[in-house]
Amino acid sequence: MAEQRADRRGGRGGRDAREGARTGPQERGRAVRAEEARAWADLVATARRTVADGLVVGTSGNVSVRVGDTVLVTPSGVPYDRLTAGDVTGVGLDGRQVLGSLVPTSELPMHLAVYRTTAARAVVHTHAVHATAVSTLVPELPVIHYMAAALGGPVRVAPYAAYGTDELARNMLHALDDRSGCLLQNHGTVTYGATLEQAYDRTAQLEWMCRLWLTASAVPGLSPSLLTAEQLADVGERLRGYGQRDRPASDAPAPD
Question: Alpha-carbon Rg of the chain, whole angstroms?
Fold first, then answer.
């Protein structure tokens, strides 16, 4: 929401920036390559899906995808339904803008931290309601369901830090150690994957697990049963061979 407010404060300047980007995405840096144009279309579709599925409100949250050494990322304060093929926004791994004229998301340090330290090819950050609620209650999401294994194990909560800061990026990296998703205290979620589809699926699964735990915990006089470390480890082994043999594991759906 801070990004949304920043765009409104920009007034006409914000509109001019969007219009300029649409007339020439190569205004800042080089021209857009075909692979990047395709990846941008997938990124915009994923960003719009976060809104349609209720994982973000307005322009909160952000999405990125890595193409070579370039990171395409949603711009700050622009509603996803207004993004076009001419709005490609990209930066190098050093944070220097190489594509487009729109200002990248304020959470760029968080996205770049993931790409610099993992093999991630896509990152999804949301303000999902149930996940954010859980982040205010516990330091780690209780293991309510075996899908926690798909994220590498029990999902940790990164301590609170102001949005867009290096401190938040550092806290997130600690929570992501040996994990592909975490909660951000009083803030939201971060997941990554080998594809946008996988990163998004992990976000949706994390929100679902948080909703499940909150629902089960709300029953008066009862406490939900939780999986043991051994049970979760067993699921982790099973997931290694899950999916169709002729389909990449990164694109395989969640087990049912």
Answer: 19
Dist CA 227 CA 145 (whole Å): 7
pLDDT tens digits, one per residue of 100-139: 999 999 999 999 999 999 999 999 999 999 999 999 999 9
Q: In terms of DSSP bridges, do strands 90-92 and 70-73 run parallel, antiparallel, or are they unpaired? A: antiparallel
Helix (H, G, I), strand (E, B) or coil at 101: coil
The yes-or-no answer on residue 35 being catalytic is no
> In which residue are the tokens 């982040």 written?
135
For the chain, which ranges sit under pLDDT 70?
A: 1-28, 241-256
* CA 149 to chain CA mean position, Å: 18
Tell me the whole-structure pTM to 2 decimals.
0.85
- Alpha carbons 69 and 111: distance in angstroms, whole number: 13
Catalytic: which of 3, 27, 35, 107? Answer: 107
